[in-house]
Structure formats: structure tokens, C-alpha cells
Design brief:
Structural class: alpha+beta
Number of domains: 4
Helix content: 25-40%
Strand content: 35-45%
CATH architecture of the largest domain: Beta Barrel
Radius of gyration: 41 Å
Shape: elongated
């Protein structure tokens, strides 16, 4: 029994020694890896860039939603989603039987009113020849008769024109060249309201990228400024873009004060309405200036400093910085080209 207990103690001591050796070796390897990393930087001249990245969405200048002005029986639909249509092309229509018969009825009413007008004219034509020889009452009677007949005739003409317009509006036509992106009611033969049978059409040649910088960012952008665009759908492709307009007033309906900035970019069949992207603008750039990586710059009591190699020692050196870019920061005072810094 004592021998068995002694063996267990030996095993435990051996395991502790092995674990200690493994942990020690791991620490040594970690220190070697840390030591092998580059922890110094030689001050040199660089190009320092400050960029501004803003998310955006593809929109279109020519985009329309078409609806009928009145309810009725949807008689025909000549398009489906994805179809290309020409400007003024008819795409759907309501049943026109009732409208045509109503128009015919008002045309008959117009004819009758026209005959009444001519009859009134004949009845008062003879006494009107001696108009100024008539009494004041007689002249007033003639004037009122002609005015009433003329009003009736004008009203009848307007009725016909209104019914003709209603007949015209029973057919939907596209106001632009474009692609049908949505058909609210694709099947004819059903009764619809204006809100049910709507058609969306967009002109893909008028697409642009819309970005919404806030009030602190928009001041850094100018018209015709270029950008590098990366679409979320194509993360490996960078597309050039150019600002075409910057809104003067904030965009309505947003939770914060943002301004719409429109960018043109090369269009092709890969892009779709609503795709998202990031646009990167170079707002400031300085070439051939002394610069160091941002990670080497430290701050103490509101002042910037670096750890510089002086002989075989490390020395804290305060510096004055200029343009702070995305990766590098310009050094305007405190360092010279060739100085070695420690991270």
C-alpha cells in the first residue's frame, strides 16, 4: 500500500515537471515571436492621404410609378417585369365600353345644345337687326337669351372634352424609356382600383450612386471630385466615380442632417437599382513629406511624442504633426529623415 502511494507521488511530480517545461517553452517561443516582429521604423518621406468613406445606394433620375386615375375592369396588360418599354408606349388599359358610350351620350347632348343655340339665334335674329332701336328691356332680353345659349353650348363642349380625356386616361403609357420593374396586377380581367394596378418603370441609363454625408462631411466635398467606389455585390472591383451634384438643402425624412450627393459611374448590366456601395474620397493629400505610421505616435498631456533611438538608448521626443492620414501622419518638426523610432 505504501509502495503504491509512493508511485502516485512520483507520477504527480513528473507530470508537474513536464507541464512546467511545456509552459516555459511556450513563453520562450512567444517572446521570440514578439522579438522577431518589426518594432522600429526609419523616418522617411511619404505620401499622406486623408480619405472620407461614405455608404451609398444606387438610385435613378428617371423613375416613375404609373397608376390609373379611376377604378374599372382591367382589360389588358401588355408588359411583364423585366420588359423594356419605349417612351409613350401603351402598357395596360381599362375596359372602355362604358367610357365610349358615355362619350357618345355627351356628343348627342352637344348636338342638341348646338341646335338649341342655332334656334335661339334664329328667334332673336330679326329683332336684333334693329338692336339699338329696341327698348332697354328688349335689348336685355336678347342679351340674356344669347348668353344663356352660349353658356349651354360651352358647357356641352366641356362635357365632351372631359369624357374624351377620361377615355384617354383609360390607357397607361410610359413617360420614359426604361425597364418595367414591378407590375401590381399582371393578369387582366379583374376589377381594380388605382392603388392596385400600379406599374414601376426605371430608365437604367440614368442610374447614379446616392451618398448621404452629414453636415461635417459635406463641407469636405466639392463638385467634380473623384471617388473610388466598391459595391457590396462586387467587393473585388473598384469603380471610378465623379460627383455631379451636392444638395443645398438637407434630405427630408432622415433622422439626422444629411445632404444627398450624386455620383456618376460607368454603367453596365451588372448594376441594379438599390445596390449598396462605399465611396472613398481623397479630401486631402500631401506628397513627399516626412511621415511616420500612426502606431508610432503617442500622446501625453495633449502633446504628441515618439520614442526615438539616440545612440544605444531610447529617448522620448516631442513632435509637431501636420496632416493626419489614414495610415501615416505628417511630422513638421522634431524629427529628421533617417531617425529610427520604436513602437
Amino acid at each position: 500500500m505504501k509502495r503504491l502511494l509512493k508511485n502516485k507521488i512520483v507520477w504527480i511530480i513528473t507530470a508537474v515537471i513536464l507541464i512546467g517545461a511545456l509552459v516555459g517553452n511556450s513563453i520562450i517561443q512567444t517572446n521570440k515571436i514578439k522579438a522577431s516582429k518589426t518594432t522600429t521604423y526609419t523616418v522617411a518621406r511619404q505620401t499622406v492621404k486623408e480619405t472620407l468613406s461614405i455608404a451609398g445606394t444606387i438610385e435613378a433620375e428617371e423613375l416613375a410609378t404609373l397608376r390609373f386615375q379611376s377604378s374599372g375592369l382591367l382589360a389588358w396588360v401588355s408588359v411583364k417585369e423585366g420588359d423594356f418599354v419605349k417612351k409613350y408606349q401603351a402598357i395596360a388599359g381599362l375596359d372602355q365600353q362604358e367610357l365610349q358610350k358615355t362619350l357618345q351620350k355627351y356628343l348627342y347632348a352637344y348636338d342638341k345644345t348646338r341646335w338649341d343655340f342655332e334656334q335661339t339665334k334664329d328667334e332673336y335674329q330679326a329683332p336684333a337687326q334693329n338692336y339699338y332701336g329696341l327698348s332697354v328691356n328688349q335689348r336685355s332680353e336678347i342679351d340674356r337669351a344669347f348668353q344663356k345659349a352660349q353658356f349651354d353650348l360651352n358647357s356641352s363642349v366641356l362635357d365632351v372634352e372631359l369624357k374624351n380625356i377620361a377615355l384617354k386616361y383609360a390607357t397607361l403609357t410610359s413617360p420614359i424609356d426604361g425597364v418595367i420593374t414591378r407590375v401590381g396586377t399582371p393578369i387582366a380581367g379583374v376589377n381594380i382600383t388605382p392603388a392596385q394596378a400600379d406599374f414601376d418603370v426605371v430608365n437604367p441609363t440614368t442610374m447614379y450612386l446616392s451618398v448621404l454625408p452629414d453636415q461635417t462631411e459635406v463641407s469636405k466635398l466639392t463638385s467634380s471630385m473623384s471617388a473610388q467606389i466598391i459595391f457590396d455585390a462586387y467587393p473585388d472591383v473598384t469603380v471610378p466615380g465623379t460627383i455631379t451634384s451636392i444638395a443645398f438643402a438637407p434630405k427630408a425624412g432622415e433622422s439626422s442632417t444629411v445632404y444627398e450627393v450624386k455620383l456618376n459611374f460607368p454603367l453596365d448590366s451588372n448594376y441594379r437599382l438599390g445596390m449598396t456601395a462605399d465611396a472613398a474620397f481623397v479630401v486631402q493629400e500631401k506628397q513627399d513629406v516626412l511621415a511616420i505610421p500612426l502606431s508610432f505616435l503617442k500622446t501625453e498631456n495633449g502633446k504628441q511624442y515618439v520614442t526615438r533611438k539616440v545612440g544605444n538608448n531610447k529617448e522620448k521626443t516631442f513632435v509637431v504633426i501636420g496632416l493626419e492620414g489614414d495610415d501615416y501622419v505628417e511630422i513638421t518638426s522634431g524629427l529628421a529623415e533617417g531617425d529610427i523610432l520604436y513602437d
